Every structure is written in C-alpha cells, then in structure tokens.
Amino acid sequence: MLVTPLGQVRLFVNDEEIEYTVVQVALDRTCRNVSGRYLIQYEYTKDDGIQKIRCCLPSVENHHTIIESGERLEAISFYDDSTKLTIGIEASFGLESEDSLDYSGSYLSNGIEYETNLNTVNKIFQFGVCWIRPFTDYNEQETWFGADPTLIR
Hints:
Helix content: under 10%
Order of helices and strands: EEEEEEEEEEEEH
Shape: globular
Number of helices: 1
Number of domains: 1
Strand content: over 45%
Largest sheet: 6 strands, antiparallel
Distance between the termini: 21 Å
Mean pLDDT: 94
C-alpha cells in the first residue's frame, strides 16, 4: 500500500478493493524536485470482462482538485496547504477511437479510473502517482510530468 502525505492510495476493481504492488520510480530532469514518484500496475486479461479499475485517495474529498490533461495523458491533482499530488494514466477521455485506445476512463472526485470494454485486449494498466512538498508556482508542474506513466522507464 502506498501512503502519501494526502493519505493512502487505494485500488478498486469493480468496487472491490484489491492489493497492489508499488514501484518507486527514479526522478529525472522533468521532475527532479518531487518528494515521491511511484507506479502502480494492474494486469488485465480479456477473460476478466468489462472492468472499472479505480485509483483513489479516499481522504481528499475536501481538497482543492484540478484536472490536468494532455496528449494521451489524463491526470488529476489534489492540493492541501503545502502538498500537490497528481495521479496520471495513459488515456484520452472522449477521444479513444481517434487515439486507437481500446478502453476509456473517467475522473472521480477522489481519483481516476480506467474502464475496459469488450474490445480491450490483455494489458497492464498503469497509474503514476507523484507529489511535491512544498509546492510553489515554479515547481508544481513537476508532478504532472512525474505522474505520466508513458515517461516512466
């Protein structure tokens, strides 16, 4: 279980909480000042059928929240007085067919989720989790890069 300054990160599949493995990721030039950078992976197989795979922070319901999407990146950030935390996934909500993705997803009040469909093939769904403390106007964009699963090698 990943514990962040804003609480525990929880993973649910079809509303059932599951255990997961967390991988600490090295910092790079795009996020050299972040306080934590992690990757959560969920292995999906077509035999699992349609699923909603949700990554959330139940304790952030009353925190300031902003959506920070980019090209094939959907990300949501949460703020308290000194911490900015971002959860990112590789997706294009509303543009799945244009980007040749066989899944969709949505933003939640406390996280983000992937939604598989009957055409989703076997794959590993990834959630990037990154935070910085303290954040400033000059460093807060680093969590956006740090939570982008496509930039994690």
